[in-house]
Write a sequence for this structure.
């Protein structure tokens, strides 16, 4: 009875209201910075954890572009990471992490090794080369600038940083796609647990609001102004347009809980359920979907992994929806807010 | 001239499609559910002593197989050989069973039945039946947890397998299945076994079968609404998503109470790696229709089978997308088709 009343009073989406910053930086010790290139819509987004964090990863898409993911295996030695580099530019964009390493080395952040520090910065990239001049890609300079720009302020969302060239709804080809970007969300629980997510949503699929089953953004109808519904296209056997423009959704889930490396890996896996709920279809052969999980461990005490994992999937789904709703359109690539006009 | 030919071809195609829709099934082959995939048979055996049992998916000949194992508390056999790096690339049957780890014994009976019928991987003078399997934890349902599916159950389910419509609800591996366990004892609901299929005009068929025994609630992904799950005292849904979001004290899932096990099948021709991708994408159906899913109290596992009897070309992204959709449909059916047991109502009981 008490339980039901408590739920009725809170509602499903209310707990966020006590956070003035409901983005990834709601987790203490985490900074986020973007750098967006001026030459074409692409860039990089850097997550810094200068105090170090336990981390894990889940790569479920079939076309990933990643670096330093092997060392996140719980069987491998390294126990702490200090940053995550998310970038546009496909494989080329992975070099953004070089700049993050340089920035952190200059600040003497990383694993002590002799008189030096080795910053551990895993990374992932999205394919955005079909949006503008494919020769323009994020470089080490982009990663360095994004690290310089990083702050603990609320994360700027929309078509910035690694999400500057992000698109979605490409089952019918890039011509019928929509603009996407960076989204972020966070929840704070009564017991002090904070779970937050940041995502660069660049999927082949549509973005769905799991609370209603409705499409937020996706493949536009071949004629007129509506949406085609990728679920209906797949169900009816409509073939995919093969040259769809490239994909991948890459993101980070963060918590102040204290987790082992194996638990962080498991958290990354559970967070992937948020992708499944908010993106349709997901984890395809042409998506390099990746989720990093980081646990700062500043909250002492035990954490129930079931609740943590469920909350992580939930905030990730919210972040994906925000990546669509906060985006700004480009010529021939309208965003949600453009269609509403 | 060309336009005329196209028009005629179009009319023929349309009338053929209409005929295909209108024609009654010529054989006992099911038109929906897992057995809509040509070459797949399904058999259940349900124990009478306690609500538990097993379900066997038999392949007529063999099929390329894959698996996705994402839950934190699995009970499986022969899943390692399904790794695309490993040699065996054919599967003869898949076992789904209740009875926790003990229930894996049922596969022994399925292997025996297949050997008697000379079905299996050719290995010198013998044939070795390849039967991957997974179990769910249903020992808390009914009075006697010592009653578990044995080899005899797996043998009988294999012998009972047919290509006809699959019986759904509280049967076979789903006989003891329950959902919505965040509120602890007395607030869960009965679930069972469900199946669904999607057929395209091209001839491609993708289908799913699942025994749903999740910690979480069952959600209809097309509306976001709870279909079955944790109950309030007045038999309304408490909504596991809301319980988790509110941070309210809850019953933590215990090993021995959960796990959703299923299988997706297609008549497409797939490599072992593609079959693995199909299973992985089908797992997105779990994520959409079960909230939360893949918890460390769930041993969620999905097998995939590709019979290769359809020689058309289909993109694995399309097949995987359909597999996720068919699996979500099957999960919802597992809840809606279930029959309640004492103290554990099913969705249909609450509607009364």
């Amino acid at each position: 009875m008490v339980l039901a009343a408590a739920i009725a009073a809170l509602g499903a989406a209310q707990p966020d209201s006590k956070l003035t910053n409901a983005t990834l930086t709601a987790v203490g010790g985490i900074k986020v910075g973007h750098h967006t290139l001026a030459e074409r819509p692409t860039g990089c987004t850097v997550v810094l954890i200068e105090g170090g964090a336990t981390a894990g990863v889940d790569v479920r898409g079939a076309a990933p572009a990643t670096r330093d993911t092997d060392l996140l295996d719980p069987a491998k030695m390294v126990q702490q990471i200090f940053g995550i580099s998310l970038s546009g530019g496909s494989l080329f964009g992975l070099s953004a992490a070089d700049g993050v390493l340089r920035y952190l080395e200059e600040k003497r952040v990383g694993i002590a090794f002799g008189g030096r520090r080795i910053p551990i910065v895993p990374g992932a990239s999205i394919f955005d080369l079909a949006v503008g001049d494919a020769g323009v890609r994020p470089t080490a300079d982009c990663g360095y600038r994004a690290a310089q720009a990083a702050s603990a302020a609320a994360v700027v969302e929309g078509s910035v940083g690694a999400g500057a060239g992000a698109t979605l709804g490409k089952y019918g080809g890039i011509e019928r796609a929509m603009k996407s970007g960076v989204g972020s969300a966070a929840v704070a629980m009564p017991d002090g647990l904070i779970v937050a997510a940041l995502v660069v949503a660049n999927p082949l699929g549509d973005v769905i609001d799991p609370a209603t089953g409705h499409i937020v953004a996706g493949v536009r109808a071949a004629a007129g102004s509506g949406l085609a519904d990728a679920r209906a296209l797949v169900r009816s056997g409509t073939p995919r347009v093969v040259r769809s423009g490239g994909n991948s959704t890459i993101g980070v889930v963060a918590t102040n809980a204290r987790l082992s490396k194996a638990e962080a890996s498991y958290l990354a896996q559970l967070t992937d359920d948020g992708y499944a709920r908010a993106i349709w279809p997901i984890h395809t052969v042409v998506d390099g979907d990746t989720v990093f999980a980081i646990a700062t461990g500043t909250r002492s005490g035990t954490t129930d992994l079931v609740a943590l994992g469920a909350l992580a999937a939930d905030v990730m789904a919210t972040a994906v929806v925000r990546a669509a709703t906060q985006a700004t359109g480009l010529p021939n690539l309208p965003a949600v807010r453009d269609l509403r006009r | 001239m060309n336009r005329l030919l196209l028009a005629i071809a179009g009319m023929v195609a349309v009338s053929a499609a209409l005929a295909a829709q209108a024609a009654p099934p010529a054989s006992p082959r099911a038109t929906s559910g897992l057995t809509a995939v040509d070459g797949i048979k399904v058999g259940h055996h349900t124990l009478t002593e306690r609500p538990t049992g097993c379900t066997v998916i038999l392949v007529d000949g063999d099929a390329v197989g894959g698996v996705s194992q994402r839950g934190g508390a699995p009970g499986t056999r022969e899943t390692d050989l399904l790794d695309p790096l490993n040699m065996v690339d054919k599967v003869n049957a898949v076992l789904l069973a209740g009875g926790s780890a003990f229930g894996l014994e049922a596969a022994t009976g399925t292997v025996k039945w297949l050997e008697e019928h000379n079905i299996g991987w050719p290995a010198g003078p013998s044939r070795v039946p390849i039967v991957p399997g997974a179990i769910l934890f249903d020992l808390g349902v009914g009075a006697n947890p010592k009653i578990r599916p044995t080899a005899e159950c797996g043998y009988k389910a294999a012998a009972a397998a047919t290509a006809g419509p699959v019986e759904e609800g509280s049967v076979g591996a789903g006989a003891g299945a329950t959902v919505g366990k965040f509120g602890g004892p007395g607030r869960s609901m009965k679930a069972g076994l469900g199946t669904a299929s999607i057929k395209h005009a091209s001839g491609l068929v993708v289908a799913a079968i699942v025994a749903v025994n999740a910690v979480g609630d069952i959600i209809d992904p097309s509306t976001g609404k709870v279909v079955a799950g944790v109950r309030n005292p007045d038999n309304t849904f408490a909504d596991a998503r809301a319980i988790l979001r509110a941070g309210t004290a809850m019953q933590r899932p215990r090993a021995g109470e959960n796990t959703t096990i299923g299988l997706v099948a297609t008549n497409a021709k797939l490599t072992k790696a593609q079959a693995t991708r199909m299973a992985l994408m089908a797992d997105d159906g779990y994520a959409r229709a079960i909230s939360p899913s893949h918890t460390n109290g769930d041993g969620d596992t999905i097998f995939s089978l590709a019979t290769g009897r359809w020689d058309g070309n289909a993109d694995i992204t399309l097949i995987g997308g359909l597999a996720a959709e068919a699996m979500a449909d099957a999960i919802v059916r597992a809840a809606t088709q279930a029959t309640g047991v004492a103290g554990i109502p099913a969705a249909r009981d609450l509607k009364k």
Notes: The CA atoms of residues 242 and 248 of chain B lie 9 Å apart. The domain at 29-351 of chain B is CATH 3.60.70.12 (L-amino peptidase D-ALA esterase/amidase).
